[in-house]
Structure formats: structure tokens, C-alpha cells
Amino acid sequence: MLSNQIMELPALYLDDGPDTEANGIDADQSVGDFAFFFAAGVALEVLAAGVLVTEDFGGDTSEGEFKFDKRPTAGSDTDRGDGDIGTINCAGTKAGQVIYDESAVGQELVPGNEVMFEMTQRSDGSNSAGHVRPFMLVRYKPELPDNLGNMEKTAELS
Fold first, then answer.
1. Can you give the pLDDT at residue 116?
2. Which of 19, 32, 65, 78 could form a disulfide with 26 if both were Cys (CB 3.0 to 4.6 A apart)?
3. Which domain holds residue 89?
4. What is the pTM of this model?
């Protein structure tokens, strides 16, 4: 039984995204989408989005920045947000720190939505470094599947 307690929504890493490694996402690689999150069959309320830093950040020119973008329609960038679920700046962070953003508290994710995790600014310069693992904290919102617009029960086989 689902409850309204805080839950961590796990990130699903893209296999064609920029470099991901054992320590997480490598912040001195090319910018782009790295992972995504979705609500599978339930409505969720966003509480926070963030990263666990697994390697100290460096970079003489710039340090990593990441965004959590809501996609109203899974798999489509039409009407995709720009950091509307969270923006994370890793300037000066050290391994073991958790950096989070609560700006989207109360936003709803329903089946058919996705949240894309992208690196928008790489760690750059002679001391570039940094790795992160993204996460989202959410709360279950009780709702019948029939009331969720993109939920449809499969036809029964006879």
C-alpha cells in the first residue's frame, strides 16, 4: 500500500547520454541529457530535486550546473520546461555533499509526464572535475487511475 510519506524517485540513466561512470555523471564531459524520472501509474507531488556529489568539483573556467526539466508528454520535448523542477549549481562543492532545490514544491507529476535531468554547464578549465548522482524526493498523491488522464486499462483478452 502506498502512503503519503516522502519517497525517493530513482533516476533512470540514458544509455546514449554523455559519459556516466561508477561515481555517477561525469561533469567535465559534453552537456546534454543524462537521466530521467517518471511517475508510473500514480500521481506524485514534487518535494525536492537534487544531486549527491561523489567527486569534488573543480574548474578554473566554470563548474557544473544541472537542470531538472518537466516534459508534459514522455518522450517529447514539445513544451519541455527549463529547470522548472530544479536547478543545481555545484560551484565549490565537495564529495559527500547533497545539493538540492525546493523551487518546485507542490508541482504534480502524473503518468505520462517525465522529468529530464540535464547538464547545462560542464566543469571546465585546467582543474575540471566532478561527478554527481541525481535524485528527486516526492510524495504519493492518492488518486484513482481512472481520474488520471493518461491512464487506460488494457482491453481484456478473451
1. 98
2. 19
3. 6-143
4. 0.88
